[in-house]
Input
Amino acid sequence: MNWLLVWPILIPVLTAALCLLAWNAPGLQRTLSFLGTFVLLIGDLYLFAGVWEGGVQSVQMGEWPAPYGITIVADTLSATLVVLTALIGLGVAVFALGDIGVERETTGFHPLFHALLTGVGGAFMTGDIFNLYVWFEVMVIASFGLMALGCERAQIDGGVKYVILNLIATTVLLVAIGLLYGVTGTLNMADLAQVVPQHAEQGRLIVIAALFLLAFGMKAAVFPLYFWLPASYHTPPAAVSAIFAALLTKVGVYAMIRTFTLIFTVGQAYTYSAILAVGVLTMLIGVLGAIAQNDVRRVLSFNLVSGIGFILIGLGLGTVLGLAGAIYYTVHHIVVMSGLFLVAGVAQRVAHAQGLDALGGLYRSQPLVAVLFFIVAMSLAGVPPLSGFWPKVILVQASLEAEAYIVAAAALVTGLLTLYSMSKIWSLAFWRAKPEVAPQAAPGILDPGPLGAGRKAVLLTPVALLAVLTLAIGLFAQPLLSISERAAVALMAPDAYITTVLDEEG
Amino acid sequence: MNSVILHTATRLLMSLILMFSVYIMFRGHNEPGGGFIGGLIAASAIVLYSAAFGATWARQALRVPSMSIAGCGLFFAAISGVFSAFAGSPFLTGLWWIPHLNIEVHLALSTPLLFDIGVYLVVIGAIVTIALEMEEAED
Amino acid sequence: MENVLAIVVGILVACATFLILSRDLIRILLGIAILSNAANLLIFTAGRVTRDAPPLVPGDLEVPAGAYANPLPQALILTAIVIGFGLLAFALVLSYRAYVAMRTVDVDAMREAEPPYPDQSPPTGEDGRQTPLRRRGAAGTPTREAAQ
Output
């Protein structure tokens, strides 16, 4: 069991290393990439099964006992998220076979992709807050590479904004960790959970908590700090923006959920109300931004920001039901957002156009693409019985129970506006006849060439699987709901987490 | 750069710098040094070579793609943590193997050493890639 | 000693903030470099500045004899320096590429990825005149009076 805990880190590292060794052999890299994500998914499923049956598991790296060494911990939340990481990784790896050209493959797409998965997996699994910073950096540097890969003008422009704001965010995180270490003298998250509530200087800890909120908020793209996301996520190839949209912001959200339920249990009145306010603003501003955009993937980027707001209100409510809704929403959002970005990439590619003003007639010319888009888009909008409906119901119910009526109203309005934004894409890009204007390619976006039938099948298979998945977790909501509830209960009462980590050496 | 002095000096210095980098790397376990700084020194040798003879010749002298060197290092570093599986210890536990040689040399082979070699190679690969990329962009 | 270092960290952060708020990409990167150094110094200060023996365990003991200096902040800083070095190197390469692609280091003029400003031009200064894009390598040094 010990070894399954390092699986989400070890397998992508080895895959990345082997892909680097096969630098000049793109065909071999493709095979390795596919096999790597497949093996990762199998191991992560076993890990999840083990955690589901046996509770929280932990291992001390290099046999250095906690709280001095680095601990790898898996509870229900992190096990669920690593399974999803592997699942989306597999889907995007298959999509990338048809989407990423040879010129990107020979300049390091596959190694960077697996380095990204390593960073994400490490961030979900670590039990040490400085180690969390390191995994953030692994993830960030791999995403920098993926963002700039290909060096198209738009990519470089988006990349500059992405890189600068993420560099500032990680530095803020480093400052916050340094201050926390200075005040408490420990970096192990379970140990911090014991030290922080008993610490004499609560005021300082609340300030540090605010710094963590700022740093993770920048990573998660919440309201006043999200500008880097819509400026950059639509510029790289669809496979890259899909994996970014599915995972990167979620790591920020995960870190926020983890630190604010486990460590910063002091001053929750301040921090949770701040998170709640930020969440409400994020979801409203995000969806309003989405309505104003033209480029399809920019519309989706703003919807992504809006979804982060939903997750945050679940955390900000501070109840088990709210957290369960947030976790359910996270799972739903990972699946749906990657699906949407992938299908939008296919649509933009077959239509040779980026913007809603130039797209059109896709329902007639590409019925399968249209149906797949419709399923995932309606799921994002929260139309029953798709997967977006249940977490929204839970979140609205949780906010009503907490008597946060404004939050409930904001969530409902956001749901409505999301539906509007999705139907706008549907009616403009798919339903109406193709507009007469000459399709003008966005500046700097390479035309990847015609799309053969075989390649299109490769592109659409992962999208179809994601669409089936969102249908499945919508129609059979109970298993995921019980997972979310168990994860939420464990987060609100983290005794098992703390004792598992700290008693490991005893 | 077309300078006889630089060409001749580079040929001489290359071997010295590379040897020194290996020495620094092995020294690193108990004294100042280590894989990172050793890798930087070795990378500086290759950067010097490319400054003297040009990036194309530097790539040729490496024989393998520079990122494959980093990949090899990453593989060593990752696999060094896996050996502890055979000893029943968690990931990255240090294992030591001191063979008895009938000579006066104390030889200690360990997984931390393998990890350090991995770091050394990763640093060489990454720095050389960036440096050669920059140098080619200037041309 | 901690107080002095804390003031130094504060000054560094102030300089970094000033530089990051600039429109020039190179200044922003310099600001980030200073900010990450400030963060490293902060960790160093947070780990308490002491004059003690190095944290080495003598061969015949299990724990060091007597008081010893805290080695952890240095390990943390070393990690942060290495990571910061890598990130900054990447950011420099990227800015160079951006300059080559767009012939400017003015971040306000970089609108390739986003829709252009409504009037198709970069924002104007307070007096209504257009702020000059700073083009390195073009004829003449950038003029400053329009920006004031």
User: Anything to note?
Assistant: The first helix of chain C runs from residue 2 to 20.
